[in-house]
Amino acid sequence: MAGNTFGHLFAVTTFGESHGPAIGCVIDGCPPGIVITAEEFAHDLGRRATGRTRHTSQRHEADEVEILSGVFEGRTTGTPIALLIRNTDARSKDYNRIAEQFRPGHADYTYWKKYGIRDPRGGGRSSARETTMRVAAAVIAKKWLAEKFGVVVRGHLAQIGEIVPHDFDAAHIDWKAVEANPFFWPNESQVEELEDYMDALRKSGDSVGARIDVVADGVPPGWGEPIYGKLDAELASALMSINAVKGVEIGDGFHVVAQNGSVHRDRMTPQGFASNHSGGILGGISSGQAVRCSVAFKPTSSLRLPVQGVDVHGNEVEIVTTGRHDPCVGIRATPICEAMVALVLMDQALRHRAQCGDVVEITPGIPGSIE
Amino acid sequence: MAGNTFGHLFAVTTFGESHGPAIGCVIDGCPPGIVITAEEFAHDLGRRATGRTRHTSQRHEADEVEILSGVFEGRTTGTPIALLIRNTDARSKDYNRIAEQFRPGHADYTYWKKYGIRDPRGGGRSSARETTMRVAAAVIAKKWLAEKFGVVVRGHLAQIGEIVPHDFDAAHIDWKAVEANPFFWPNESQVEELEDYMDALRKSGDSVGARIDVVADGVPPGWGEPIYGKLDAELASALMSINAVKGVEIGDGFHVVAQNGSVHRDRMTPQGFASNHSGGILGGISSGQAVRCSVAFKPTSSLRLPVQGVDVHGNEVEIVTTGRHDPCVGIRATPICEAMVALVLMDQALRHRAQCGDVVEITPGIPGSIE
Amino acid sequence: MAGNTFGHLFAVTTFGESHGPAIGCVIDGCPPGIVITAEEFAHDLGRRATGRTRHTSQRHEADEVEILSGVFEGRTTGTPIALLIRNTDARSKDYNRIAEQFRPGHADYTYWKKYGIRDPRGGGRSSARETTMRVAAAVIAKKWLAEKFGVVVRGHLAQIGEIVPHDFDAAHIDWKAVEANPFFWPNESQVEELEDYMDALRKSGDSVGARIDVVADGVPPGWGEPIYGKLDAELASALMSINAVKGVEIGDGFHVVAQNGSVHRDRMTPQGFASNHSGGILGGISSGQAVRCSVAFKPTSSLRLPVQGVDVHGNEVEIVTTGRHDPCVGIRATPICEAMVALVLMDQALRHRAQCGDVVEITPGIPGSIE
Amino acid sequence: MAGNTFGHLFAVTTFGESHGPAIGCVIDGCPPGIVITAEEFAHDLGRRATGRTRHTSQRHEADEVEILSGVFEGRTTGTPIALLIRNTDARSKDYNRIAEQFRPGHADYTYWKKYGIRDPRGGGRSSARETTMRVAAAVIAKKWLAEKFGVVVRGHLAQIGEIVPHDFDAAHIDWKAVEANPFFWPNESQVEELEDYMDALRKSGDSVGARIDVVADGVPPGWGEPIYGKLDAELASALMSINAVKGVEIGDGFHVVAQNGSVHRDRMTPQGFASNHSGGILGGISSGQAVRCSVAFKPTSSLRLPVQGVDVHGNEVEIVTTGRHDPCVGIRATPICEAMVALVLMDQALRHRAQCGDVVEITPGIPGSIE
């Protein structure tokens, strides 16, 4: 139940502050025999990395992963896998001024009220730097899910400010296009528009929110633990635990509020489901369709636009954030969202196997079962 | 990690099927000394009960709670509290026909694929009947939170189909009005409109979704466990675990996608926060403001409108649901949403107390702390 | 982590006080499809029941198990299994006098200091009555372990006071003899001696301790979770959690203190292990040999021999326990010890399956693996 | 539930293999504000270190702890504390020969059967090197327990082979003597005898077991979670999880088997308990007396005396262990036992505070409570 551990059977414990000596994680419960090398982490860490485009923070991290344990001659051994990344570009002096101020929209005040002490360097533990390790841990999960079940977890930016993708069809996403631009945008023809939008935004000193969609294809039916460990409940928790997330939807999400049941209920045919309003989850258990979710990222509160605030002594002060920050944190959050979905699926896959075995046998002679 | 237990320190384990002999729960970790009687469960169970209005299912349950353990001479003893409700109005024959069919939009197919066997009577374990015990368990949580901290958790219907409350101000909700009508609607002048809407809906044989807002007032700053046990992450999980929920928002929710950071960041003043876009949570920890969340309920898929589907043998069949079902399950879900929020807060209150004690002391001499 | 739940994946939560309305349990995570009826609990509950012989407490409980959930048409469905036993022979007036006294050697004082309140009726939650539900839950575990793996868990009394079994060979235990006498004693020729011993003990008003051995045959190699979930560590916890237990041994136990390594290390041959000093566990993982453990039960402190003690006001009082109590609680503890061993093995079997699958494949080409 | 995490609220996750790049741990849930420096780990790590005397393994580890996170300006912040120790004296070539052999009495065979792969270098994860991190984590626990409650956890060697301490009185242990000799022996006059014994043992090529006693003074009444999280149950698990442990006793331990209840039950007087047969725990909850436990360590199986065994191909082979090994692993296990007791107490202290608060209030007017 420790707050810094994610997952029950594929359990990822992360540690580290934004400007401390290092960040890292320990992955416990990993199946043995998975081939993995330190190099394999580079791809997704690169996709997530700050500094990828001029539209994201200019902090440059090498993000070189050292495998400290749990891998022998290139294969996981079933013992805990510790991953370590040294913080090499932490400029703590950037943050000295804010040590006695509460930045609006940040966790400064709440950490201080919770613990009576906080590490102000770069946001300390509350920095999105922590999500690096989620992405790293998910590299192993993604690999196992793909090799064993053919599961593929992919995400894309679905809205930034008021801009939405043109000619978008959720059933036929151009994943190559998504990977070909720094916004993870599903329509390449809009990339220039997005760049202009971001340039104007940066010039204004303000920030904006974003929506990210994640799709997991190939998830077999049967994953998810009713009642409180439902697949959708755990996805909601996993995605809401990402910094700056304020909303999570499964399938049609909030559109269901004004929907009719005759529309929403996905009809089954002998050939399979005829639609996917449910987002691939029924009763908290995967149905075999694509698992679809959508996430809302708030605009960052770290702005060079000054704002009145208070300091730790209760005095009113003017607060200006001068560090390196993204005007839209959602832009590089796609790999993080994918990571959390992959971690949930990995954990649920193991939990399902524990209770029901590798192969579920249909009980004969029981109503509700094939005879 | 068991799928039927909610909470880590205030741990509620529920059991029971819709048409089995009984439903119940075990509450472990409850603080000792709380005054509680079997009668105190009646209020919230009544608010949730089926049959409260002609707009909800006509199944009539007495829902009389028997306290089996954990209470001595009217006070909790710190040992597990078992609550039991016998199922008295379970008409299983209503469901015989569906034993070999997969109702669209239900968990029939997924339970069967997961377990290889399912209890088809009334949806078995996947029925919303299970939520009765969430409401019961939360009665104790609500009481403790109110007595010890002054926390009050209240919800209301915020949208049904396309209908939204008139003259609504989230900062000044008329909670008396909410409780005065069977829709938990915050504006009494619209009740007749809602009744007409529901009558027409029932006549059509179709169903519709709903949105519910929950507000927790009085939550002290400091509750919530970063990183994966964030208060908002656990609220998301708790609310998404309710049957039929497809989306969860904290604070401004999906509105943040098109918001600017200069708008979103809640300014602090010596007198407190100047706004509450965050929904009372920063960095996963409560800020001392009202905790606000919003939930989307899908339209029920149990319709008397026939639909083509498949049976357990893979044959195409026509499916008509004839049991007693609500045309809008969201109508009576308000107490359930409140319950889940209360359970999350209760658990987080105990977790915070475990790590930081009853009173958090500010560490002197550390930047970020008062000297 | 709740104190009243045992197991992680096969999670048993018990509830109920000795003289409350009922005791019960909820088993979560049970594999689906196991055939089980209410009648199947009778055998082991009968073996454990008070009143079986004149040497155990004269409290008579019917101990009829009602299955409230999780079983459909005689098979487990994968949803939580709730079992309920009504307390029918609870004579609370027997205990009225002790409500304000702290019985020496009991939990009266510690519960009161922990919770500030206690249920004094029959020891409340601290009564060994709670162990009934452990035995009940283990009936399902024993059945699954036996059917799926051929695992058989059996125990016997190994010492009572100074009396030890004659002609005893741990490798060839006469299990029929064990079941044929009310002491679970492995040598029937000593039963008369034991009865005389117990008669004299009861006459004296005193009590005595006992040692119980449990053997699990058929455990496959590979069960156990290093480092902190070692099979032996979990057995130690499970057995020590039984009322009155003060010591646990695995394999040679405390005899290893004066043993040489050349004796202790169990030699392997192409035909298997040549001895079993380890008790079937190496590095916290089962070796495929019989898992052997031994448990020490203290003598009950509930004696009619008066003793000076204190009451809740701090005054010195004379304490005499007049209720129905066993002069040797170890006598009927054999089924309880078996139950805890079975519950540990069940949970570990599921955990092993989660991480490593139903069939473990040897990684080729790695030193330490077959090529 | 991950196998490499110890504790629920003060949760210690360890990682690392004996001859991998590093070992380490992450401590989650630590109370904020504790003063701690990297230097403070040296004392207990030194007490545990190999190479302390000529009677223990000649492997020399610097064991320098690096604090990677969770500490800011010398105080814990409430975020996860990661500790890292690089392995500097790992001579893997010593172990090359055993990569394809199963050393008798070791975990080689069981890891291989569990995971299908194992890291043979120095025993990999099953090496006692892992216990270094238990000792490190417990340094923080010991400090908090001492400062907040005055709890002191100390252990000593109580038997080695057939040798027991002379003139030993468990109620008056000479702790200065214990720390003054490399055996943690409570009677300095026997140190020469022990050295002669060990010299003869090493010369013989054989090994021997040991018994260690641990005493925790100052534990307040009320710690421990009935039923399955009993203080004694968790101590049993914690101690049994240490490499080579085969038995655990609380209080009088196995002596209770032949004890009478009139002797065992510790009488209470207005001045406190008159004896401590229970080992300071009643009903799984601390009584306020000293918590006493005793642990049996088996003789190491790593001997230069050859033994017939099998290799991974099933062939019979002669096995000789030539690495650096202790002839009595129990000698330097005292700090490890202390560490596990401290970790259990720390976790239970937080759990107690969660449920019952910093100060337990007696419920007035209830039998069993002061009026």
Task: Supply database-style keywords.
homotetramer, 371 residues, alpha+beta, four-stranded antiparallel beta sheet
Tell me what the structure shows.
Four copies of one chain form a homotetramer. With 371 residues, the first copy, chain A, is α+β, with helices and mostly antiparallel strands. Chain A is built from eight helices and 17 strands. Chain A has a five-stranded antiparallel β-sheet with strand order 1-2-3-7-4, covered by helices on one side. A four-stranded antiparallel β-sheet of chain A has the order 8-9-15-10. A two-stranded antiparallel ribbon of chain A has the order 5-6. In chain A, β2 and β3 form a beta hairpin. The radius of gyration of chain A is 22 Å and the shape is globular. The two termini of chain A are 42 Å apart. The relative contact order of chain A is 0.17. Chains in contact: A-B, A-C, A-D, B-C, B-D, C-D. Chains C and D meet through β1, α2, α6, β10 and α7 of C and β1, α2, α6, β10 and α7 of D.
In short:
Four copies of one chain form a homotetramer. Chain A has 371 residues and is α+β, with helices and mostly antiparallel strands. Chain A has helices at 42-48, 108-115, 131-149, 175-180, 191-204, 231-240, 261-264, 334-356, and strands at residues 5-6, 11-16, 22-28, 66-67, 71-72, 75-76, 81-86, 152-160, 210-217, 245-250, 268-269, 272-273, 281-282, 285-286, 291-297, 307-310, 316-319.
Rg for CA atoms of chain A:
22 Å
Which chains share the greatest interface? Answer: A-B, 128 and 128 residues
Give the biggest sheet of chain A.
5 strands, antiparallel
Strand percent estimate of chain A: 15-25%
